[in-house]
Amino acid sequence: MEQIFFILFLCGIVIATLAWYRGRKQLNKHYTWLSYLSLGLSVILIIMIYIIPKDSVFIFSIPIGTPIAFILSIFTLFKRNEKKPLAVIGLFLSLILLGIMMLFGIFLITPYQP
After folding, report:
1. Are the CB atoms for 72 and 34 separated by under 8 Å?
2. Where are the membrane-spanning stretches (predicted)?
3. DSSP label at 52?
4. Which residues contact residue 30 at a Cβ distance below 8 angstroms, ignoring those fewer than 6 apart?
5. For the segment 25-59, what is each residue's pLDDT rounded down to a tens digit?
């Protein structure tokens, strides 16, 4: 399982480095609503993991929202006139969420108990 998290962490570093390299010559950078949304969605999903009861209808929002947060943070990272720190934090939080979802998915599919 450590390999999955290590690979996800390396993917996050590569994506953040490519996004920084692509937009390094832009001078008028600022935060837009996409930066705040990419960070806020990841934080809300992490909070929802611990708050939502397991028999609730909202439990399906976490596996649906995790790829959306990942795609949104990558999209925000590759905008040229966007500041990167909030999007990078959102990317790493969404990668943590993807790792958690993969871990739960593996234990739900296989008959072995953790």
Report:
1. yes
2. 6-21, 33-52, 58-78, 85-109
3. S
4. 81, 82, 83
5. 666 777 888 889 989 999 998 888 888 777 676 77
